TrEMBL record:
It comes from Thermobifida cellulosilytica TB100. The lineage of its organism: Bacteria, Bacillati, Actinomycetota, Actinomycetes, Streptosporangiales. Its cofactor is Mg(2+). Keywords: Isomerase, Magnesium, Metal-binding, Phosphoprotein. Residues 6-131, 152-256, 263-370 form the Alpha-D-phosphohexomutase alpha/beta/alpha domain. One of its GO terms (biological process) is carbohydrate metabolic process. NCBIfam families: PRK09542.1 (NF007088). Residues 375-450 form the Alpha-D-phosphohexomutase C-terminal domain. Transmembrane segments: none annotated. The keyword Cell inner membrane does not apply. This is Phosphomannomutase.
């Protein structure tokens, strides 16, 4: 079975097909998953990668051999799988490697109601069962039945955000040959439901897991260049870019300029607070400080959390939060089983834009208050040693307002500038995010911290 430590990550399974993740592994994981989760049924979906159908079928075979009935939802985005798990009230597994290159694949798993499964909530148990060998099932095998859930998914999202009355918008969408090419026509187009006042201009909607045009990772500025150019060329109102499994959505305005996920978090938060005054909004510690400021100004309760979906979802459950946003363009909704869905976030932005006469750049300017560096990665030999060096350099300085270790190292200065330094879980990298009241202050603090990290 190989070294499972290579593929079992903090939140999911991720490996290279067929070197570290093949049908045998998927079959064993399916059997182990059937042991760990409750209920008689499991739902499985997969993305457009060439290896996904084979891996999903093997997983279903393993689960059904343990007596579980498997609903094969077929091609879908990760948030379609979360919808299926939530709506049907059953555990689910999604075969995707998200934005990773074509040779990768993976499995994201959840309990009934889209509750996350991570290292401390079932994933370690699944790995242990796979390593030990899953006991044979005494009773009859379960069934494997195909069921198309795309129309139900689209109808559910449309029930949460009504776009029927907005002004007509020209929308460029870059699906990156990923699952957005499957879900956008169903949700925003007229493929399955009534037409909306949206003129969709599709870029790279052909499902192709070899990613012939560019990697399906819109967080890298190089991968949204075509979207930006198309928006500028056509005079579109907005551009949307989805990652490979279409659970994240990035936005560019009518000028082709990126809108930060922090600004989108604040914008959506204001919409949710208008519906439910005084509600709690979750934001991870790398989102702009504008997010908690704006939430508080609109009568909401901002709650800061660690980076990562398992932390966000757990905090949402504890606090009853209506919405949560991350710097990485993951957006979580209580009305969507506390799961992340880029499509629903995009629909909120479209409704705000379509209900206003102003261009998107003017609307989002209200939510963009500070200068941010974006995430800067540095390869280091010793993550802990370099982090300690940075902390020592700032220790005792008069301009340091606070230091905390909620997730890595966060240092806040009296000027309002701050930085966070986090170690990657999977690579020898330190990830730096810096924010300041203006670009000059941001650049100065960024360069000061990088000089210590890279010394």
């Amino acid at each position: 079975m190989g070294d499972l430590g290579q593929i079992f990550k903090a939140y999911d399974i991720r490996g290279v097909f067929p070197d570290t993740l093949d049908a045998d592994v998927a079959r064993a994981v399916g059997a182990a998953f059937a042991h760990v989760v409750d209920g008689d049924e499991i739902v499985v979906a997969y993305d457009m990668r060439p290896s996904s159908p084979e891996l999903a079928a093997a997983f279903a075979e393993g689960a059904s051999a343990q007596g579980r009935n498997v609903i094969m939802a077929g091609l879908g985005s990760t948030d379609l799988l979360y919808f299926a798990s939530g709506k049907l009230g059953i555990p689910g597994a999604m075969f995707t490697a998200s934005h990773n290159p074509a040779q990768y694949n993976g499995i994201k798993m959840c309990r009934a109601g889209a509750a996350p499964i991570g290292a401390d909530s079932g994933l370690a148990q699944i790995r242990e069962l796979v390593e030990r060998g899953v006991p044979d099932h005494d009773g009859p095998a379960g069934t494997v039945v195909e069921r198309d859930l795309l129309a139900d998914y689209a109808a559910h999202l449309r029930s949460l955000v009504d776009l029927s009355g907005i002004r007509r918008l020209r929308v460029v969408v870059d699906a990156g040959n990923g699952m957005g090419g499957h879900t956008v026509p169903a949700v925003l187009g007229d493929q399955l439901l009534d037409a909306l006042p949206l003129d969709i201009d599709p870029l790279y909607f052909e499902l192709d897991g070899t990613f012939p045009n560019h990697p399906a990772n819109p967080m890298d500025p190089e991968n949204i260049v075509d979207l930006q150019a198309r928006v500028r060329e056509t005079g579109a109102d907005i551009g949307l870019a989805f990652d490979g499994d279409a659970d994240r959505c990035f936005v560019v305005d009518e000028r082709g300029e990126p809108v930060s996920p922090s600004a989108i978090t604040a914008l959506v938060a204001v919409q949710e607070l208008a519906k439910e005054p005084g509600a709690t909004i979750i934001h991870n510690l790398i989102t702009s400080r504008a997010v908690p400021e704006i939430v508080a100004e609109h009568g909401g309760v901002p709650v800061r959390t660690r980076v990562g979906h398992s932390f966000i979802k757990a905090t949402m459950a504890e606090t009853g939060a209506v919405f949560g946003g991350e710097h990485s363009a993951h957006y979580y909704f209580r009305d969507f089983w506390k799961a992340d869905t880029g499509m629903l976030a995009a629909m909120h932005v479209l409704r705000v834009l379509g209900s206003d006469t102003r261009p998107l750049s003017e609307i989002t300017a209200e939510y963009s208050r500070y200068a941010a560096s974006g995430e800067i990665n540095s390869e280091v030999a010793d993550q802990a040693e370099r982090t300690a060096a940075v902390e020592a350099a700032f220790a005792g300085r008069e301009d340091v307002e606070s230091v905390d270790h909620l997730d890595g190292l966060t240092v806040t200065l009296a000027s309002g500038s701050w930085f966070n330094l986090r170690a990657s879980n999977t690579e020898p990298l330190l990830r730096l995010n810096v924010e300041a009241p203006d670009a000059e202050s941001m650049a100065k603090l960024r360069d000061e911290v990088l000089a210590i990290i890279r010394a």
